[in-house]
Amino acid sequence: MQVASFIFCAFVLITLLITSLISPKYRYLGLLAASLLFYALQDVRYLIVLGALIVVTYVAGLSAQQHKKAAFIAGILINVLVLGYFKYIGFFSGGRLTSIFAPIGLSFYVFMAISYLADIYKGKIAAEKNFFKVALFLSFFPTVTSGPIERAGHLLPQFDEENMAKIRFDIDRIRDGFVRMLWGFVMKLVLADRISIMVGTVYDSPSKYSGSILALASILYTFQIYFDFAGYTHIVVGAGKVFGLEIIENFNTPYLSRSIAEFWRRWHMSLSSWLKDYLYIPLGGNRKGTVRKYINVMIVFMVSGLWHGAGINFIIWGGLHGLYQVIGAVLKPVREKTGRLLHLREGGSAGEAIISTLFTFCLVNFAWIFFRVTEFKDIIAVMKGLMHPQLINLMDGTVYTLGVEAPAVVLTFIGILGVIVVDILNYRGIRISEKIAGERLWIRWPVYIAAIMLIAVCGVWGQGYDSTSFIYANF
Amino acid sequence: MKNKVYKGVKIIAFWAIVGVLITGTAKFLESKDSFEKYTTFGQVSDQVDVLFFGSSHMLNSVNPSLLYSEFGITSYNMAQPGGVIPESYAQLVNALDYSDPEYVVVDVWALDRDYHYVDEMTGTETEETLRNSVSLLHNSMDYWPLSVNKIKTVNELIKDNATKMEFLCDFTLYHDRWQNMAEDTSVDLENEYLGSEVREEFVDPTQYSPDDMTQVIEGEPESLKYLYKIIDLCESRDIKLVVTFMPMATIYDQDVQAVNTVTQIAEERGFTFLNLLDDTTVIDKTVDMSDNTHVNMLGMTKISRYIGQFLTDTGDLTNHKGDSAYSKWDEIVSEWSQTELKEMMDEDELYAKLGRVYNTNASIVLYVKNSSKIFNDEKALKIIKLLSGTSVIDGAGNGNGPYLMIRDTTNSQVLEYVGNTDETGSSALIGDFEYVSADDFGAVYLGGDTENNMLDMTDYYESELQLYIMGADGEVLQAEYYNGTWSLIEED
Question: Residue B120 CB: number of other CB atoms within 10 A?
Fold first, then answer.
């Protein structure tokens, strides 16, 4: 079952209906049953891996509570080894070994398990004694395939009886949840999946295209991965809202960041904060001198790259982001001095803000090329191609030959523009969804109906399409 | 409580609006291919006496417009390209929801096929072949509104559940057509060919037959099972069944097996089997084939007349011509005639041009010069003989002088002249005329005006053949001149 599907919406509604009939005290069991069913529908074998890790994490959690270091380390190690086997065995064995299958969402719930154990060990939270709640925490169906990487301290308390009592047919809450999901569907099905066709066409044979088209493809991919993952996040956060559960946010207008450091505070926030809390700080963070700090930054970002995929290209991608940060930090005094010489306002002028934002976007965009193009020869072809822009290709109709019909290309560019505008408004604290929800019915309904029709008609869905799986589900 | 009811009503109203909008949009975005074929059927379905089913062999062989025009038989050609017997069965089941025909005529090409799921076929086909097969089925099925029979037949033809949804709710497939709506502006839902399709090509087919012409189908492949289902269905509905096998120049083992098997079944179950596979009496395979296994426009006309005559001879059918209740059929056939005339006028390839002249029963003046290659072209000569109804042309050309034919269909007369001659006092649609010919020269003088030659012996003297399409009042509607490769040199 795909998250970006009508079936998922129906699944959410049916689960809501059933769980609302259960006594609040035991509603988490209804959610757990739904979650396990959802995960088993992906592939029943995955359930075995998830089940085993739930047991390990639960037992290790109880032991960690009693400061049994060995049990805590064993719990962490088993999780890491399971992740290592299923995800990295091929990479680290040079392709000589392969895992028997690759459970979807493994990277996400292993990280959740590690954070759960670490937080208990550090005394931040108490170990959950109810096995089924731990199971629900790790398997909660909206987040199990692609996150966000929830923290036990945030999600587990929401499974308490008091909070579970909220699971009922509260029309306004359900509406708000589905409206949030609707926006996610637009980003995913109308924009991301159509962009993916264009990007795929170019990157399948990059040597056939000029630099301008390759640059366009890289920009399109930058938006594709954002719309894809942010779209997914809107759907799962919306689904959580339908149940009265708050799922942590993962994105906050990342492409409006003015620096790479800011970008990582706005992009995949649940992973960034996890890496900071459970890797960067344990490594010493910035407490052990500048050089060590830079080394730590590089380690964190290369691990981040590796987390995204077992491939050199992902490590390069992570390494690039690390490098951006280190270079940024090294050059900070120079930039500040230049600013003072040019009498630039502290805090930055509007022009400086735009230039910083565009420069950061370009750096991020360049790094995404390594994320998307997995073959070394293709990366070389892209880099060579970028040296020969041939700008005419942007206007001679080539863009309409990338697997998407001209009207859909126009729709895509309008859509990209639309999301940028919404993000700018969000950046300035104006929440469009809240504004619409606060409007009268004759304004609200046409907007909602237009969104539904947009997805129904212009969405990439139905037979003949196979792009509804999210990019981040692969990680 | 009041508040809850109010919210409930709002939810229902909201989704009702969405439902209406999606239903309307789905109708708008639907592919029109199937509707191009069957919309006219929907308009006349309750008056149809004969339904034709099968594959491209049936599609290209029987023209219901001709059947009505010449025999007053109301019929519709439901056949689809690649249509295997299970698909014909599905079509029949759905068509019978709207029609109560006297006769059902089914062509049994591919009777040996041992599958009924078109999205799986034999399991060895490529993904592209399977997708193509499913696409073709859409042309058959999209037209039919959702019904119990549609669901049943889709279940019989499609294995994959997601693909079934394509047929039962085609919005899942066609919602993306908003990008191609410009194509729909040229769609004409009126089908004046009543479902049939004409092939223009004239080829020299490879004529081949297997050594063993007695072989039969072994076992009971799925297609054969579905033929039995068609037989049972027709019997249960008291519909007379006729089974056909259309002519082929290249005959394969499976074709022989099919006709021999059906011959046996026809005897057992008591239906008529019109076996034209190896026939030489209805069509001429040297002229009437568009490829090795399909007939062209001339073959279609001949087979249609043969079937029309057969159905008429049964005495079971009423000639509906002149019946005011059937005026829609007159309109359709009138439209068909107009289209055929236009196609004939637009045609610029000689064989097809002459074939269309024959099919439209047009009046013409045709001149072939003495040294023309036509006289050595067996196919061209046969078509010209078909037009004249005689073999007079055999005496012309190759030193025996030119050939002139005046085909006056208004007055049902054909005048032909060969060799060097000077004919005066003749009269036809073109009026009184004098024909003078000598070696490679010909002149047709109208109304005693010997200053003006109707034939062009100056600018187009070198042309191999001159063709003049005449109007009902004897005026020249079109003059065309053909070169030695039977391509059009010029037209006036």
Answer: 16
Nearest to B106 by CA among B258, B3, B214, B217: B258
- Residues from chain A that touch B25, judged by Cβ atoms under 8 A, are 453, 456-457
Q: pLDDT confidence of A375, banded at 50, 70, 90?
A: confident
Question: Of all helices (H) and strands (E), which one includes residue A183?
Answer: helix A171-185
Contacts of B141 (CB under 8 A, 6+ apart): B34, B90, B94, B150, B153, B154, B157, B167
Tokens 């360049």 belong to residue: A366
A35 closest CA partner among A119, A155, A179: A155
Q: Bridge partners of A123? A: none
- Secondary structure letter of residue A277 according to DSSP: I
Interface subset of A 404-423, CB within 8 angstroms of B: 405-408
Interface contact B173-A463, CB threshold 8 A: yes
Shortest Cα distance from A441 to chain B (angstroms)?
Answer: 10
**Cβ-count burial A326-359 (b if 16+ within 10 Å, e if not):** bebbeeeeeeeeeeeeeeeeeeeeeeeeeebbee
Q: Which residues of B touch A (CB under 8 A)?
A: 4, 7, 10-11, 14, 17-18, 21-22, 25, 29, 162-163, 165-166, 171-173, 175-176, 178-180
Q: Which CATH superfamily is domain B40-135+182-337 in?
A: SGNH hydrolase (3.40.50.1110)
Sheet holding B421-428, edge to edge: B421-428, B431-438, B441-446
Q: What is the pLDDT of residues B184-225, one digit of tens each?
A: 777 788 999 999 999 999 999 999 999 999 999 999 999 999
pLDDT of residue A468: 47
- Specify which residues B366 forms β-bridges with: B405, B467
Catalytic, A308? Answer yes
Q: Which two tokens stand for residue A74?
A: 């064993």
3-class state of residue B438 by DSSP: strand
Residue A168 has pLDDT above 80, yes or no: no
Catalytically annotated residue among A234, A268, A308, A321:
A308
Cα A444 from Cα A438, distance rounded (Å): 8
Alpha-carbon gap, residue B19 to B22, rounded angstroms: 5
C-alpha–C-alpha distance, residues A452 and A457, integer Å: 9
Q: Which member of B18, B165, B180 has the closest CB to residue A463?
A: B165
Residue pair B98/B46 in contact by the 8 Å Cβ criterion: yes
Cα–Cα distance between B309 and A245 in angstroms, integer?
Answer: 77
Q: Tell me the average pLDDT of chain A.
A: 90
Delimit the domains of chain A by residue range.
Answer: 6-169, 187-247+389-475, 249-373
For chain B, the structural domain boundaries read 40-135+182-337, 347-491
Nearest to A306 by CA among A38, A54, A111, A96: A111
Out of B14, B21, B165, name the one closest to residue A453 (CB): B21
Sign of CA dihedral B146, B147, B151, B157: negative
Nearest by CB: A408 against B4, B14, B179:
B179
Tokens standing for A283? 């490594």
pLDDT of residue A347: 60
Residues 6+ apart with CB under 8 A from B206: B249, B250, B292
Contacts of A449 in chain B (CB under 8 A): 14, 17-18, 21
A405/B29 touch (CB, cutoff 8 Å), yes or no: no
Cα atoms in the Cβ-side hemisphere of radius 13 Å centred on B118: 26
- Residue the block writes with tokens 């004759």: A442
Closest CA to A118 of A107, A108, A110: A110
Give tens-digit pLDDT for A169-187: 788 888 899 999 999 999 9
User: Average pLDDT of A98-124?
Assistant: 91
Contacts of A178 in chain B (CB under 8 A): none
